[in-house]
Design brief:
The chain is α+β, with helices and mostly antiparallel strands. It has one domain. 49% of the residues lie in helices and 19% in strands. It is built from three helices and three strands. Strands 2-1-3 form a three-stranded antiparallel beta sheet, with helices on one face. The radius of gyration is 21 Å and the shape is flat.
Amino acid sequence: MKNIIFIYASILVPIFLSACEETPTDRIKKFESRVAANRLGSSTDYWIVKYNILGNWEKVALVFGFADDRSFCEELLDLYARRHPSERYRCQPAN
């Protein structure tokens, strides 16, 4: 009987504990809200966002730590546009 209880406990406890963990979506939302509330450096940080096949803008990179984050973000967009001319990117303020 003790062996059966031990077996059930060793199976069920990890299942219950994993149900309490944050989902990846929760982690992303928490990260995005932290970025929105906390600027890094002296200029506004910027997201590089990409227009996806579903018709939505999705965040793909965060630009921070430069004297002028927007200018660097625009430079990165120029590089992306040369390599992937059919895709649409833009810079979006993060905070």
